[in-house]
Amino acid sequence: MTTATALSPPATEPAWPDRLHTLLRGAGVTQASYVPDAGHARLIELLRADPAVTATVLTTEEEGVAIATGAWLGGERSVILMQSSGVGNCINALSLPVIARVPLLMLVTMRGEWAEFNPWQVPMGQATEAALTAIGVRVFRADTPDELLATVSAALVEAFDSDQQIAILISQKMLGTKTW
Questions:
Q1: Within a domain: 31
Q2: Is 6's pLDDT higher than 50?
Q3: Fewer CB atoms < 10 Å away: N or C end of the chain?
Q4: CATH no. for residue 117?
Q5: The total number of structural domains that make up the chain
Q6: What's the DSSP call for residue 11?
């Protein structure tokens, strides 16, 4: 009788949210605001557990714009995590960082696209990029973890060194479909 020998699992890179947390912290981000979202769940968990980060849960996404503006005025760097449906909630508030040239980085998980089951998510999912562009926010899209990490790395420089307002749309295809 032979017995199978258990092999050690191969060493793997950390999951993209872990690598994203490392990128944000390496760029000096010390504040994060968010509306709870399954697509951002692991990143939120990491930010909340990080003693060097003030992680603030929002009642509406526009509060995140105010927090990011206040953080910058106080000499800190911030990130806002939201879902595409929340973009519509903060369009008017986005005029503040655009006009005042406040550095802004938003990570937006998309809904209303790949295999969406909830028809209420579709209209804002289709309008997210156009709405952000219309208010003056630069928009980038990431469809894979590697694209996301490279895009965030570049956006951190553009936002905080060039006083730009940037949203990175994280595709629903990358995050996977949601169900109830």
A1: yes
A2: no
A3: N
A4: 3.40.50.970
A5: 1
A6: P
CA 40 – CA 38 distance, rounded (Å)? 5
Domain interval for residue 34: 25-172
Q: Quick one: pLDDT band at residue 3, thresholds 50, 70, 90?
A: very low
Q: Could you tell me where the beta strands, DSSP code E, fall in the chain?
A: 29-34, 54-57, 77-83, 104-109, 138-142, 165-170
Q: Return the H-helix or E-strand segment holding 180.
A: none
Tokens linked to 34:
């968010």
Q: What angle do CA 122, 58, 78 make, to 5 degrees?
A: 100
Answer yes or no: is 94 within a domain: yes
What does the alpha-carbon distance between residue 108 and residue 85 come to, in Å, rounded to a whole number?
A: 9
The whole model's pTM is what?
0.90
Q: How many residues does the chain have?
A: 180
Chain segment 124-175, per-residue pLDDT in tens: 999 999 999 999 999 999 999 999 999 999 999 999 999 999 999 999 988 8
